[in-house]
Amino acid sequence: MTIAVRPGSTVMFTGDSITDCQRLESEDGLGFGYPLRVAGEWGLKHPDRPMTWLNTAHAGDKVMDLEARWQTDVLDARPDVVSILVGVNDMGWHTLDPKGYVIPAEEFEAGYDRLLAPLAEAGTKLILIEPFLLPIHGVVEAGAALIGEEERKEWRTDLDPKIQVVRSLARKYGAHLPAADGMFAELAATTEPEYWAADGVHPTPAGHAALAAAWLRLVA
Predict the structure, then answer these.
(1) What are phi and psi of 30, to 5 degrees?
(2) Could you tell me which residues come within 8 angstroms of residue 201 by beta carbon, excluding any fewer than 6 positions away?
(3) Mean of the per-residue pLDDT values for the chain?
(4) What residues have CB less than 8 Å from 33, skipping those under 6 apart?
(5) CB of 170 within 8 A of CB of 177?
(6) What pLDDT score was predicted for residue 64?
(7) How many helices (H) and strands (E) would you count in the chain?
(8) Confidence bin at 55 (pLDDT 50/70/90)
(9) At what angle do helices 105-121 and 63-73 cross, to 10 degrees?
(10) pTM of the model
């Protein structure tokens, strides 16, 4: 089942750096990642149904950071469709930030639920993209931290319950769910995972194209 969008609808993307993708440096404010690809592909295929495309994502955001700005960044715009991708920083905050701590899945779920409740009440159509982590090899830098095999194993153990939270919330609110973690796992099984996300988190151009294609399959 797909989301039917009317001409003139406002579609908003929000989340962390994967969605932000240097949006403030781009001419149209969409950034250089999958939101731009989605808007471009839609415009090519549906010139008779123009949309307003917005991106309010912030690099480094966790659910608690989204919540702090939710009214001004999202609710005040009264979008018809909201697409959210968040969870990677909730997974790795304790590793990347000296002031960070392990965010329990229950805390992640409660905050995410508070984001969705007012949108559902307003009748907003929701797309919740699973957070994902690709099984890359070697050590990569993430700010001041070095992330290797052990850290990624720890992150995966932390992320899996949060993915289940997103799936559960999608069922609760009738949201559409691009299963990004599973999609990238399948892609990484036939091609080196670095091809899709060099650091395991931030997609390459091919990774952003895969996300955009998964997103567009849910909208008509």
Answers:
(1) -95, -10
(2) 18, 88, 133, 134, 142
(3) 97
(4) 18, 19, 20, 21, 203, 208, 211
(5) yes
(6) 98
(7) 8, 6
(8) very high
(9) 20
(10) 0.97
